[in-house]
Write a structure and sequence with these properties.
187 residues; Immunoglobulin-like; 2 domains; nine-stranded mixed sheet; 32% helix; transmembrane; membrane; signal; Integral membrane protein
Length: 187
């Protein structure tokens, strides 16, 4: 009874070892070098970017005059590559404005399907948000700062109390001085 599970496990292990070897022997040799899948690396500039920012992507696995498409969970939409200089393809991609800080993988596939490339972009958050859409007021990002300081400007309760106190002191000083002048001089 115990030999059945042992025999099953031994058969499974032998099959696992033999299958990759037999698959490698059965694979036909590629006669045409264009049939091989080329792999490469996606060059990302800048490699660290804030949400809403743009990155430039470059690949050279697709060959001259071809096109490719690139995707990432960080991208707002698919990146479409066009010929750059030489064998390079170039694309620009916008990072989603709601992308969380993390490293995101980029996948690029050549149009003919014979080349692929991968890369990584790092999304970082800065302490102060930078506007990526039209701002509410002129001056770029100063609208946020101006809005915060408006609440601190102008007279508030504290200023009113200080003003009333100073006014009372001034009234007492004027009354005291007037009273001293009215008194007749006594000898």
């Amino acid at each position: 009874m115990r030999s059945l599970p042992l025999t099953f496990c031994a058969t499974l292990v032998a099959g696992t070892i033999a299958l990759p070897a037999s698959a490698a022997l059965a694979a036909p040799a590629a006669d045409d070098p264009r049939d091989e899948k080329r792999s490469g690396v996606v060059s990302v500039s800048p490699s660290r970017v804030s949400p809403g920012g743009e990155v430039e992507l470059r690949v050279d696995v697709c060959g001259r005059g071809r096109s490719a498409r690139g995707n990432s969970e960080a991208f707002a939409s698919e990146a479409r590559f066009e010929p750059g200089g030489g064998k390079e393809l170039v694309a620009e991609a916008r990072i989603r404005s709601d992308a969380a800080p993390d490293d995101y993988e980029i996948w690029v596939t050549c149009k003919d399907g014979h080349g692929k490339a991968t890369g990584t972009v790092t999304v970082v958050h800065h302490g102060r948000p930078s506007p990526v859409a039209p701002v509410r007021a002129g001056g770029g990002g100063t609208a946020v700062l101006a809005q915060e300081t408006v609440a601190d400007e102008g007279p508030g309760t504290r200023h009113a109390v200080i003003g009333l106190g100073l006014g009372a002191v001034a009234a007492v000083a004027v009354a005291f001085r007037s009273a001293r002048r009215r008194r007749p001089a006594q000898h």
